Every structure is written in C-alpha cells, then in structure tokens.
Amino acid sequence: MSAPLRVVAWSTGTVGKHVIAGIDARPDLELVGLWVSNPDKVGIDAGRLAELHRDLGVAATNDKQALYALKPDCIVHSAMTDDRLFDAMEDLIEFLEQGINVVSSGPVLLCYPNGLGLDAYVDRINAAGAATGASLHVNGIDPGWANDVLPLATSSLALRIDEVRVSEIADYATYYQPVVMGDIYGFGKPMDYPAMLWQPGILTTAWGPVVRQLAAGLDVELDADLIEKVERVAADADLSTVSVEIAAGTMAAVRFQVIGTVNGTPRIVLDHVTRTHPDQCPEWPTPASGDGCYRVEFTGEPMMRMEFTHHGEHGDHNVSGMIVTAMRLVNSAHAVVGAKPGLLTALDLPTVSGRGLVTR
C-alpha cells in the first residue's frame, strides 16, 4: 500500500471541523497541518477543534509559511469565501504556486467558471498548475455533487431529454451561517433590503456554473443569457432561527431559479426552495420526506425523478449538509492529486468514492 497523502486542513468552521474528522477517518490520508484565522485557536489540537474529544497530534496555526514548509500533497480548503471572492481566489492561486494540490468548497463559481468573465483568474490558476504540477478542484454538495455528478449519472438512463431540473428544497432554520443568512440572503431583513444574492446577475454568477456545466456534460449549446427568477416571501409571524431572528413582515422564504434555454425553451433549470419554517409556501415544491432534499428531474423519455436526502446521525439535515460538503472534498483528494494540473471541474474527475470508510 502506498504512503498516505499528506494533507493540510484549512479552517475549522461548520465545514472545516468535518474536514478534519474526515481526513482522520481515511487510512489513506494523513493530517499534517491545520490553518486557523482566529488567533485564539492557535496552538489547540486539531482533534479538539473538530470536537473529536481526543488529540490528533496536530496543533492549529495561522502561519501559512510554516504549513507550506510541510510540503503537503493537498490542502482541503473550507474557509468562508462568499464574502471575499477575489481574496479567496488569490489564496487558492498562492497554494498552487507553492506546488500544493487543492480541493475547496469555494468560491463556488470556480466549479465551472466558463462565461463568467473570470478568464484572467482561470488563466492564472492554469499557469500556476502548469508551472508546479498542482491542481485545483472546487466542489461540495450544491453547487457540487447534487447538481453535477448526480444528474449527469442519471442522464445515462435517458432516451430523450427535454428538460433537466436540479433542485435544493430545504428548511434553513437550523443552518448556522449568520453572514450567509442575513447579509447574502437577507433573511430577517426588510423586504426592500438590497441583499447581495438578489442583485441582477449574482445568481447567474453563483449558480450559473451549475447550469453551464450540465449543458457541457450533456453537449447542448444554451442561449447566451441565463434567466433568473426570484420569489421572496415575508414572515406572517415572528420566527427564530439559529442564525437570525425573523420578525413578522421581514424576509422568511425564497424560491429562485437559474434557467438555461435553447431557442427560448427551458432545457436546464437550477431551482432552489429555501424556507425557515415547514409551514411556509405549501404551494412550492416540498420534500417527499424529511426536512430537506436534493431532487433531480428529467422530462423526456423516460420521465425520471430522483430525491436524495441526508440526515445527521446526531443532528438534522443542515448538520449533515456540512458533513457531505466536507466529505465530497476529502474523498476527492486522491483524484485531484492524480489529475492533470490546473483547474478541474466535475467533468474532469474519475469516479470518487468513500473508499476505506466502511466500518471495520
């Protein structure tokens, strides 16, 4: 058996703590370093920060150069990027310039950046990869596996595809990300609050890569512009979530779509239904069971519908959402290290599995 990959985990937040646990769980990975942004965490053992209740023998640091000096095979990067897109891309480029392969949960627009006007950054990523042999792959659950690998695998069963729709349908009441929930989505804000996500073109930037990657995987040329649709709903009573308080009359639920058309007809649709209470908007799609799901629907021949759900062993679907995001990254490490240099999309990778994770 070959030596385990030497891996650095980058952050210890809601995803990062599961990254640490995931690296520790795989016998073919070795955690050799851990980066933290909070100076209060420096020197604390990774196992404690990951809430494993035991030491892993790796102390957290905020010294990037010390981590580079370890010469890791891969960085699993799960730091928050939604509010620092361009700074985050500079970080990822720096990792590649150091000759370190990277799997990252963001910025999600790098899942498939074609058509986003980011050619200068993509060129720098590819140039750094060409110079050092390192690769970068950005993925997760959504954008990520639930709307790239899962629908493309399902498409192998189709005779004719008239439309493919990939959906997230979830209750975010227990989703802990105050910046995302408050500033980016605008939950708990007045209905006229200019939340970032609802500004023209932002949905196309954030989730357009999902639509365009599916189009590339299905070999279909979409019309030049994607269509954005947003429907926001105010709370009819005060609500409390783990991230924000939602007063009656402020934003409490949203459904948005990013639609790729061919000659004006919808062919590939990204559909998100986000509630903060299960009773909201019963006319919108709801999961067949549980409090959240990812759904893939094919209209054509045959008609196909697949619903993927997850739930934490000791928590809800928002806890397990962080786990599946983390593990999509961790379990991709070997494939990314072995792949061609530069930016990799889901279309570039071989099958990624949970090899080595079956309980013994």
What can you tell me about this protein's structure?
The protein is of the alpha/beta class and 360 residues long. It folds into two domains: 5-139 and 332-348, 3-Layer(aba) Sandwich (Rossmann fold), CATH 3.40.50; 145-313, no CATH class. Helix content is 26%, strand content 26%. It is built from ten helices and 15 strands. The chain has helices at 16-25, 46-49, 64-68, 85-97, 119-132, 149-154, 178-184, 202-217, 317-330, 333-337, and strands at 5-10, 29-35, 60-61, 74-77, 101-104, 135-138, 160-171, 227-234, 239-240, 245-246, 251-262, 265-275, 292-301, 304-308, 342-344. The strands form three sheets. A seven-stranded parallel beta sheet has the order 3-2-1-4-5-6-15, with helices on both faces. The protein has a six-stranded mixed beta sheet with strand order 8-11-12-7-13-14. Strand 2 (29-35), helix 2 and strand 3 (60-61) form a beta-alpha-beta unit. Helix 1 (16-25) packs across helix 9 (317-330) and helix 4 packs parallel to helix 5. The protein is globular, with a radius of gyration of 20 Å. InterPro entries: DAP_DH_C, NAD(P)-bd_dom_sf. Pfam families: DAP_DH_C (PF19328).
